[in-house]
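Support reply, case 0932

Customer input (verbatim):
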Amino acid sequence: MSHPDNQIHITNLSELADVDITRFAIADPKLAPAGEYSKIALQNNSVWEFLEPKLVLAADVRAALTYVSSGNAEIGMVYATDAISKPDLRITQIPIDSYPKIEYPIIVINNQNNKNEINELIKYLLSEETGPKIREYGFSKIEEVKPAEN
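Our regenerated output:
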């Protein structure tokens, strides 16, 4: 994503090597999974070495998003699900084969006291009722899950 006030227009990550950028925001790869995904995607497109001295490392995705939104970085890389929260930014999606698959697993801790509530929550998250809202925020619907045993 990039701030609308700058003239950066790219269609893929490899074009970043041809753009005059001084500050590129990502979550710090040592602190946040999003940063590690960003680093891998940039490496896979042969622009990591070019961008590394221009990186503005953020504690997390939301901070990287704020750097771009506030103009403290011209461009940055965040989850699409976070980028849609700032409709004023210019968003360029990158191919999903540029980085490892991103998943948010549901992990059930074996606790007899609340298994029914956990199973109800999972059932709700998988329901048709939640599907449109999940997709509205840029997520895919969960396809498969093994509920906790009663």
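We compared this against your earlier run and they match. Two observations from our side: Helices lie at 33-44, 48-51, 61-69, 80-83, 115-126, 131-136. The chain has a mean pLDDT of 85. Please reopen the case if you see a mismatch on your end.
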